[in-house]
Amino acid sequence: MAITLNSDKSSTTVPGSTKPLYTSTRTTYNVDSNGKIDPKSVKHELLYYDAPLSPRVVAATSTGTSNDWTFANKPLSSTPYLGADAQKSLREGALKNTTQQQIQTAATKGNVTPDQQRALSTKQLNTAPPQAGDGTQPISLDIQGSGGQRDSKDSFGVHVYPLTLRQSHQDTVKFTMLKYEPRKFQTGQGNLGGFSERSTNRTTLGTVVLPVPSGISETNGVEWGQDKMDPGQALLANMALTGITKGLGAMVDEGSAALETASKSGDAKVAVAAGFAQAASQVGGLLTRTQGAVLNPNMELLFQGPTLRPFSFSFKMSARSSAEAKAIIRIIRFFKQGMSPQKSQSNLFLKAPHTFKIQYMYGSKEHPYIGQIKECGLQNLAVNYTPEGQYATYHDGPMVSYEIQMTFQELEPVFNEDYGNQGNTMPSDLLFRESQPSTKP
User: Fold this and answer.
1) Rounded Cα–Cα distance for residues 251 and 89 (Å)
2) pTM across the whole model
3) 294 and 314: one domain?
4) Is 130 inside a domain boundary?
5) What's CA 126's distance to the chain center, in Å?
């Protein structure tokens, strides 16, 4: 029995050209009575359109056992339908990825079994599962993370954009959704901070993998603020601290010693006299008016505390097919639902939303030259359904392009100890040596 699979039309921009290239695919093959495909009967055709609504023509053909394409020429001309840049892109580039996705999507819509898809073309359909590697293999979509556990009862799944990213070698950013876990009270055994560390063995709910966007950055910060303490305040504070730590007798001795020292200082006598006179007359600024001076405020910039780092991401996702548009919709749903609070069964409480682990990935490993991000909460999500400035959809409804902007913030501050080496030292492989300069940033 002869079978034909036709894909939806989509556009691709190849290097060397600014004009979109509109293509679709048509796959034909024969199936015997046992459902097996005759490999020699498999034929792929790349169909080309001069414009979105123009008639299609066959621009290139390929058998199902190779990725070698034979290019068709225009009638009465030696010029092929696809130029040199497009031919190169079809063999190894964006057009190749688009064509692979069109063939695979058409096979899925045609209810072709996985075994039949592999028989159609193992090289073009890429139906083998992704392999882990060091950047030379396709990316790994393992959602377990570091110590994470998948919750089979409550899972958001694994989502990837673009769909061809599973076969790509490019760096990615991975968003892993985690079930929120509050920190618990803990005292004793040397821990006087009041709270335990948040567990790293967390329930993993789902994963989204996207290309690394442009403009990634991070901002570390701490809060410092100015503070004042004049000599009188310092004396009283010191006396109070001495009384608390050493007893009332030591506090009296500290006060007596301070008064004895002050009695021998002419400046102290002037300050005390001006202070009493100002209190009696209820006139402000007496010391400044009579002496042209103020009490030394001992002003100093003091550490106030850490801050929580924010992270912003912007992704513009243009669908090359209806199937890819629906994948984008699932990604948007993933973040929208994950950031939303949850009602308790009694409606008495609102539970915290899920949180996210964000990782920059170099192949299947975490990127060694981009700073790591602690567990984050998703604070804001904005979706633009018409990023191109006009309303456009596929025939079955999904938008052709989406843009999302997300703002995350870490749940905990970054501390010195988080950098992995104890003490105020720099790892030896990052130190500059004139005889052997480090190659790391």
Assistant:
1) 84
2) 0.60
3) no
4) no
5) 27
